[in-house]
Amino acid sequence: MSADISSKLNRLLSTQPSGIVLCSSWLVENGYSLDLQQRYKKSQWFESIGAGALIRYGDHVDYLGGLHAMQTQLDLSVHPGGKTALGLQGKAHYLEFSAKHAQLFGAQGEHVPLWFKKRDWSVDVKCTLSNFLPAEIGLTEITHKQFTVKVSDPARAIMECLYLAPKSQSLLEAYELMEGLNNLRPASVQKLLEVCNSVKVKRLFLYMADKANHAWMQYLDLSRVNLGTGKRAIVASGVYIAKYQITVPKELESME
């Protein structure tokens, strides 16, 4: 291997942490041609995990290492959301948090690369693409291994839970999660409520926060939040909550 090729390899190994995916297109943009990538693979510095994706040879890369690549190299908004995001931030420890499932959210119209979708990450990864919240707000960074990943902050994460409810997320469990969120920042909640375009999510969020008697509720200006008009039945048969014009399960309303 020539000195120049070796120098570029050393630079790549020293600037990029282990545990992540390296996207072939990003490598090309940064001066690592497809031919050079092939040489690195032949020399067993890197190995392919699918079309357009490499990892260090023998490296253990989990789905968060794949997400890091999508966020930092492909500029996608895909991120852990809902209960997964709460679990990664220690906000779901009192519930059964299964490491076998990962719920991701991304913007509608984004294309998750095939290498990510086809890869066996040893967890059941589900990705919901929606514009019910803008892609750029309500995110925070967590450190995982030697790199960082953007995930939904607790306020956005609980809204994502409610977006999935009741079909893919239990409303009772969502309320248990909401009960633990007694230190949300009112300014962050206010902004999310103002830009959220799902009436169901906003009404459920306020109903549950109200029911949990969270102190931060008193600092919200609901006159700036569009809660839509008319009644909304979250479930077919249940209890009607006049204040928020929603019908919720009897078991939820009766929870202490």
TrEMBL record:
UniProt-listed Pfam families: AbiEi_3 (PF11459), AbiEi_3_N (PF17194)
InterPro entries: AbiEi_3, AbiEi_3_N
Name of protein: Type IV toxin-antitoxin system AbiEi family antitoxin
Domain Transcriptional regulator AbiEi antitoxin N-terminal: 6-97
Organism: Pseudidiomarina terrestris
